[in-house]
Amino acid sequence: MNQAAPQNMPSSAKLIQLMGTVSLVCGLLIVSTHQATLAPIRANQETIMRQTVAELLPGANKQITYGVDGSGNLTVLQGVDAPGPKLFAGYDASGKLIGVVLEGADRGYADVIRAMYSYSLEKQAIIGFKVTELKETPGLGDKIVTDPKFLANFKELDASLKNRIVTVKSGTKKNKWEIDAISGATISSRAVGRLIDKSAKEMIPIIQRNRQRIEGGN
Amino acid sequence: MAHAHGNAPSPSESMEAFLNGLWKQNPVFVQVLGMCPTLAVTNSARNAAAMGLATIFVLVCSNTLISLVRKLVQKQVRIATYILIIATFVTMVDYIIKAVSVDVYKALGPFIALIVVNCIILGRAEAFASKNSVGKSILDGLGMGLGFAIALFCLGGVREILGAGTLFGVSLFGPNFQPWVLFLLPSGGFFTLAGWLLIFTWWKERKKRMAEAQQ
User: Fold this and answer.
1) B-chain residues within 8 Å CB-CB of A138?
2) Residue A216 has pLDDT above 90, yes or no
3) In a domain, B67, yes or no
């Protein structure tokens, strides 16, 4: 047996002291980086959100972000990082409401697909669509971002909620509330249909209920 | 392995510490380390470059701090201490990437956090920074980090060119190019890595044969 080993062992208190000091320094480094990057991270997220809203609602000069609480009431938000469902209203230069941008998410082939779409209260239709997060197979599922024929579905997709928004087999679209799937990217196309349907069913009644307030921009 | 001493390293020693990782002991092509990020994030040149830069930052910072505290750290808790230091810099780089570009942050996803378990970083902490001066440890981190970044770029560049017909998002072959999508998929990562390893091994063997022939 090695008798010398226990003597060379530093005491537990010394080891704890050492680890504690290192942890303290590490903690300070992390907290200071977090503090320093908090503002740019928020600014980045807000810029991206504003750009997406502007893209989905061409001509929108002014934007207001509303948060939706559990009972469907709206509150004006200053940033975009508040938790919970949100809607982004876009107004033209004269202050007239162009439309509202909503968020949706559903399971695709590889992972959850997140997207934003614009809704026109006047037309009761979806007038724009953009994928914001996607991990689908390159060359197949990721066509939902670029395929012009697929994106043409969202020029005026009926969202009056009289009928469910559904994705139909490629080339079989007959009604205004149907989305024509991309051949070879059926699972991702269906996920888009589901994410819009789910989010529209939840959010459009809230928008209709608060229509006056959103149109007034307050 | 260089001797452990606190004196300033000579220029040739410094150069060797730097070039070792960059070329002679390249972490990907020679040591075949850090395969998880190498294969997972190299589907585009931009992702590869971002992961390379993040790894350089973590390697240089962790090597510096570990070298600074090397005489204070008891051997019984050294690995825990190194991991703590590495995880700190990874968390910092995670915040920094998010502040610089949300797009890159989304593309790299969980692989930023997984830099903590990149064996190159703990490997350099244990094998080099814990035994060498701060100056040499920084150079070693820089060399190894750059070596890793170059290797990632070699993979990411080839995969993006063949798989999407672009480099850094710029189209190279015009709209009629039919991309070889396989190269963007995980299997494409293995094929490209195999191709590069083949080139490196062939080149090394050739050099060895030429040296033998000269003797």
Assistant:
1) 43, 163-164, 181, 184-185
2) no
3) yes
Residue type, B189: G
- pLDDT over 70 at A52, yes or no: yes
Q: CA angle, B34 as apex, B30 and B39 as ends, to 5°?
A: 100
Nearest Cα of chain A lies from the Cα of B23 at a distance, in angstroms, of 32
Q: Is the confidence at residue A27, as pLDDT, over 80?
A: yes
> Which residue of A8, A12, A26 to mutate against B (max B Cβ within 10 Å)?
A26
Residue B66: name the closest of B15, B112, B123 by CA: B123
Q: Please tell me the predicted confidence (pLDDT) of residue B3.
A: 43
Task: Say if B156 falls within a structural domain.
Answer: yes
A66-92 in b/e form (b: 16+ CB < 10 A) is bbbeeeeebeebeebeeeebbbbbbbe
Domain boundaries, chain A: 11-40, 46-216
CA–CA gap between residue B59 and residue B140 (Å, rounded): 9
Q: Is residue A201 scored above 60 in pLDDT?
A: yes
Number of helices (H), then strands (E), belonging to chain B: the values are 8, 2
Positions in chain B whose pLDDT score sits under 50 = 1-6
Coil, strand or helix at A64: strand
A29 touching B, CB under 8 A? yes
pLDDT at position B21 is 84
Distance CA(B180)–CA(B210), nearest Å, equals 37
User: Would you give the distance in Å from CA B157 to the centre of its chain?
Assistant: 15
- Its domain, for residue B91, covers 11-214
Considering only CB atoms, A15 lies closest to which of B76, B106, B181, namely B76
Segments of chain A assigned E as strands: 62-68, 74-77, 86-91, 97-107, 112-120, 125-133, 157-158, 166-168, 178-180
Report the complex ipTM: 0.81
Q: Indicate whether B3 belongs to any domain.
A: no
A137 and B102 within 8 Å at the Cβ level: the answer is no
Our CA-based measurement puts residue B22 at a distance from the nearest CA of chain A, in whole angstroms, of: 29
Alpha carbon distance B121, B87 (integer Å): 11
Report yes or no: A92 and A59 within 8 Å, Cβ to Cβ: yes
SS3 state at A102: strand
Enter the pTM of the model. 0.79
As for how many domains chain B has, the answer is 1
Instruction: Say if A160 is an interface residue toward chain B (CB within 8 Å).
Output: no
